[in-house]
Specification:
Blueprint (H helix, E strand, L loop, with lengths): L9 H8 L2 H13 L1 H8 L4 H28 L8 H19 L7 H29 L3 H31 L5 H26 L14 H9 L2 H22 L1 H9 L4 H26 L1 H18 L8 H37 L4 H29 L10 H27 L5 H24 L2
Helix pairs in contact: 1-7, 2-7, 2-8, 4-6, 4-15, 5-6, 5-8, 6-14, 6-15, 7-8, 7-12, 7-14, 10-14, 10-15, 10-16, 11-16, 12-13, 12-14, 13-14, 13-16, 14-15, 14-17
Length: 453
């Protein structure tokens, strides 16, 4: 399965990505609806919610390496990754039930506990799943298709997840709490079903196809000497902070700056356009390289963000058009970096002779979670500094500050990321040479083993 020339059957490629559909019902509301619900409906302080979200994400700094290395070292008849994914599904279903459907009154401790459980369960599913995907093929271009499968089903899930709020919020008395309850039940039902299908349909990489893992200290030392990976982490961190900062306050911006009452229907368009854009990003990545395709995406997002700065109350049509254009770039922000990380693992394997997919995806996961924590924490606390009221009825100064926060910080971070990713050194040609060395080493090892008495 890991030979450079191998090709996954289309049905198995699609089966691999299915679990991302219900996972989207978790990631989307955690960014969009959690803060409005717990602050606006349950009355928890907005600034403290930002701190709790940050602390919950920071737990991933500890858990991600544990899960990544643990899955690298796991040996079972079900493979390295599947036991972790199964355990994560159980943890997530419990956490989602408690976090999305709390029984008031609840406090900050309750929120921190269950958001942390959801985060850890989410990592136990997604990190081994991504590492598993990196092992399914060694081809530079097929890895883009594998991550594209994840993103394809993730965006289908996001389209479905936005249809639920669009319907709920259109009903009399529709609230963020009602939206979270509906989304939560979808996760509780669909996640175990898609997880079971994944386990059955997609084979684990056989133990004789991978080299044993190594210690955390040795792995980290080698990882930080991997120039392309360190650059990729910097780019990932900048992009995630910018995108999460913007997404966290989108509901407030749409409501108080533009005057949009039902953001769910606009998000439905946003993710629908993102779904339609996946083939274009796969094509562009294969044509000019994944790193430069990502640079094009960052540049486009920066321009679109700054174009929103002059908008005001009543500019719903222009906001919707620019927002949908941003949606076209959404898929690239997760699909392309994930495929690039799978490639940089080969650089490490060529140097060390070890297979450390889990460790590398864990490090990328830490950067991702750190970026999300900073994006959420900074945006909510900056709003609190300008006396923004999550329940509405804000002053003109607070609304003006909100508009600038929505447009300028994310655009700035995207612009900084562009030159870093544009000069990314691991091209398709260089990766092909590295894979040639790895395949030759594997063939030589197999020949020695077969020749042994």
């Amino acid at each position: 399965m890991t030979k450079s020339t191998s090709s996954m059957p289309a049905w198995r490629l699609l089966s691999y990505g299915t679990i991302n559909l219900p996972l989207s019902f978790v990631g989307y509301p955690l960014v969009i609806f959690i803060a409005p619900f717990y602050a606006g409906e349950l009355g928890l302080p907005l600034s403290w919610l930002g701190i709790m979200l940050f602390l919950g994400r920071m737990s991933d700094v500890i858990t991600d390496p544990i899960i990544g290395i643990g899955s690298d070292h796991t040996r079972s008849r079900f493979g390295r990754r599947k036991p972790w994914i199964a355990a994560g599904i159980v943890m997530m279903t419990l956490g989602v039930y408690k976090l999305f459907m709390p029984e008031p009154p609840v406090g900050l401790g309750y929120f921190l506990l269950w958001v942390s459980v959801v985060y850890v369960g989410f990592t136990m599913v997604t990190l081994p799943h991504e590492a598993w995907g990196g092992e399914l093929s060694a081809s530079y271009h097929e890895r883009t298709k594998i991550t594209g499968s994840r993103q394809f089903f993730g965006l289908i899930g996001l389209v479905a997840a936005t249809a639920v709020p669009a319907y709920v919020m259109s009903q009399p008395g529709g609230t963020s709490g009602a939206v979270l309850e509906a989304l939560g039940w979808v996760v509780i039902i669909a996640l175990p079903i898609t997880g079971a299908w994944l386990m059955w349909a997609v084979p684990s990489v056989p133990a004789n196809d991978v080299s044993p893992g190594v210690s955390l200290r040795s792995g980290l030392r080698t990882m930080w000497r991997n120039g392309p990976f360190v650059r990729m982490l910097m780019v990932l961190l900048l992009g995630v902070i910018g995108e999460t900062f913007r997404q966290t306050i989108t509901l407030f911006y749409a409501r108080d700056v533009i005057g949009v009452s039902n953001l769910g229907s606009i998000y439905l368009l946003y993710f629908g356009v993102g779904l339609a854009g996946i083939p274009a990003w796969i094509w562009l990545g294969n044509t000019i390289g994944k790193h430069r395709a990502l640079g094009v995406s960052f540049t486009t997002l920066a321009v679109l963000s700054l174009a929103m700065l002059p908008l005001g109350h009543g500019d719903g049509v222009m906001f919707t058009a620019l927002f949908a254009a941003k949606g076209f770039c959404f898929g690239s922000l997760q699909m392309l970096p994930s495929a690039m990380i799978a490639d940089v693992v080969d650089v490490d394997a060529a140097r060390s002779g070890k297979s450390r997919q889990g460790l590398y995806y864990a490090a990328a996961g830490v950067a991702l979670k750190l970026g999300m924590a900073l994006g959420q924490g900074l945006s909510l606390n900056m709003l609190d500094l300008v006396d923004f009221n999550a329940k509405g009825a804000n002053s003109a100064d607070a609304i003006s500050s909100l508009a600038m926060m929505y447009c300028i910080p994310c655009a700035t971070l995207f612009i900084i990321a562009v030159p870093l990713v544009w000069r990314y050194p691991l091209t398709a040609a260089r990766h092909q040479k590295i894979r040639g060395r790895l395949d030759a080493r594997r063939d030589a090892t197999a020949a020695i083993v077969n020749a042994s008495p």
